[in-house]
Amino acid sequence: MFNHKTMDKTMLTPEESLSLITKTIEETKERFKENGHVLVFWGTLILIVIGSQFILSRLELYKFTLYPNYLYPLVGGSYMTYIWIKEKKKNLPKTIIGNILGNIGWIVGMNLMTMGFFFSDQLGEAMAPVFIILLALMIIVCGLSIKSRPLTIGGGLMNLIGLGSFFLDRDYQAFSMMLGVVVGLIIPGLLLNYARRKDNV
Amino acid sequence: MFKDLDPILHSQLRLSIVSILISVDEANFNFIKDSTQATSGNISIQIKKLRDAGYINVKKSFINNYPNTAVSITDKGIEAFETYVANLKKYINPGE
């Protein structure tokens, strides 16, 4: 319909103009469709950390339970740096929403890590629920911003799991955290990847 | 013919460029070229017209020794785009 090589020689009708605007905005947004790899990565990493901490505490190796937390800055930090470099190389324009979500991710992530490393004693039994709820809020905000139903629903369920874990004994909170990341990160991430692959067919 | 429609925006390529810039913070020349499938020369001319109208900002720099032209929409450009869309709707639905 629109031949861009001969543009500006033709007069658009109002309908054509509106159609061109809608099409261009939709196509631009489509190029920024979020993929779920980052969510699946963080979900799996959290699952590994919490799972290994649970196993260590079951084996009564309490003094080692802090060590899996170092995977967050080491593995998580390296992965995010790799993603950042890759995106930078592509030199794609940034969307306002992408910037906001990226910043929220960093802020929540840094707070969760600070809480985990320095305030776990003060937080005590509230540690896991607070961790899950903060993560869930971030996912809900992301989901609502990019209008993703899997993320919004996953985040909402994770939020409920977080609130529910206040009623759980500390020994079993690891399970609610693991369930939370599966429901709030891994499943929505896989669904986003599936939707993206389907759209590219 | 369509006298209420801003002549700067009422052209296919310029309208495409502004529609892209409405959706992003900033876009570089290659992204616009890739999105519009127009020729570099044509895009350059239309970017200049939009810049002269004050609708967009053009920032030239170097990234890894390669020239990079970054384009972003200005407040005036956003306002003009919104007015243009409102006028389009008036033409399409005159009764509303």
Major sheet summary line of chain A: none
Kindly report how far apart the N and C termini of chain A lie: 22 Å
Q: Please indicate the count of domains of chain A.
A: 1
CATH-assigned homologous superfamily of chain B: Winged helix-like DNA-binding domain superfamily/Winged helix DNA-binding domain
CATH topology of chain B: Arc Repressor Mutant, subunit A
- Into how many domains do the coordinates of chain B divide? 1
Instruction: Classify the secondary structure makeup of chain A into a structural class.
Output: mainly alpha
What is the N-to-C succession of helices and strands of chain A?
A: HHHHHHHH
Supply Rg of chain A: 21 Å
Word description of this protein:
The complex is a heterodimer of chains A (201) and B (96). With 201 residues, chain A is mainly alpha-helical. Chain A has one domain. In chain A, 75% of the residues lie in helices and 0% in strands. Chain A has helices spanning 14-31, 37-58, 71-90, 96-118, 120-123, 127-145, 149-164, 173-200. The radius of gyration of chain A is 21 Å and the shape is elongated. The two termini of chain A are 22 Å apart. Mean pLDDT of chain A is 83; it is low at 1-7. With 96 residues, chain B is of the alpha+beta class. Chain B has a single domain, classed as Winged helix-like DNA-binding domain superfamily/Winged helix DNA-binding domain (Arc Repressor Mutant, subunit A, Orthogonal Bundle), CATH 1.10.10. Helices cover 53% and strands 19% of the residues of chain B. Chain B has 4 helices and 3 strands; from the N terminus they run αβααββα. A 3-stranded antiparallel sheet of chain B has the order 1-3-2. The interface between A and B is medium-sized, with 28 and 36 residues.
